[in-house]
Amino acid sequence: MRAITYTEYGTPDSLTLTDVPDPRVGPGEVLIRVRSASVNPVDWKVMGGYLDGLMQVDFPAIPGWDVSGVVEQVGLDTPEYEVGDEVIAYARKDWVQHGTFAELVAAPVRTVARKPKSLDWHQAAGLPLAGLTAYQLLNRLGTSKGETVLVHAAAGGVGLLAVQIARHLGARVIGTASEGNHDFLRELGAEPVTYGDGLVERVRELAPDGVDVVLDLVGGVLETTKAVLAEGGRHGSITDGTVAEAGGLSAWVRPDPSDLQALSDLADAGALTVPVAEVFALEDAAQAYALSQGGHVRGKIAIEVSR
């Protein structure tokens, strides 16, 4: 099969389109014919060696954890799915080697859910990692109806989903973003504020008594978070491990089929959409990585593997 691989840590130029053996399908796994995969910042961070102390990478490695596609084969003792089922997955395993930037990927059923019928292949591929990150963080912080939530980097891949999920939970949402993304956030149901100097004052103008929940999706904002948090408020970060020292939650997303199915159901209920910023061909994965590394992408970056 065709796949994107890299043989050592490096830059996007390290990515190569090559032919590799089809993956084996073990017990409790499904083989997915990949229609689309999604690029996440963690992909190029792993490839760059930034997470070497955290995650095992076996070379040559196929990157990618997000996928949408069709079940082509089921492994032993896998009653959950049948050949032909349309699925999505946050196909993260215990080590990095056989990822989703390939024509086929074997995914444990603990990472898989039904594809939302309301989303196309590229939108669906952008849902798992970012959606689970937002969904799990909001739930772990106990977000509830009537609360005010501040989302740092609300127009990013995780942020735009966090805004929608928080709104579905009945929360009021304030989101930080550049002015060029303010109308976009308003369409998603958030009240936008410009990040940078004076952010604390701008948030306090909207929420004089402080906010109940803060999601840090960018890092470097702990002091701002503490300055706008209401008494008894909760905060968590996906980028800053020091938040635990300040009473916050340092979170790392995990595969969960029930959570992923809940996100799929939200999309089909009309409560969740996944904006796609750009779609690249498989052979252009290096360009997709470079775009993600540049930051300031509004929406998800997809890689079309097959039609």
UniProtKB/TrEMBL annotation:
Superkingdom classification of source: Bacteria
InterPro entries: ADH-like_N, ER, GroES-like_sf, NAD(P)-bd_dom_sf, Quin_OxRdtase/zeta-crystal_CS, YIM1/Zinc_Alcohol_DH_Fams
PROSITE patterns from the UniProt entry: QOR_ZETA_CRYSTAL (PS01162)
Pfam family, one: ADH_N
Coiled coil: none
Single GO term (MF): oxidoreductase activity
SMART domains registered for this protein in UniProt: PKS_ER
Record keywords, A-Z: Oxidoreductase
Domain Enoyl reductase (ER) residues, every copy: 10-303
Full protein name: Oxidoreductase
The species this protein was found in: Knoellia locipacati
Phylogenetic lineage: Bacteria, Bacillati, Actinomycetota, Actinomycetes, Micrococcales
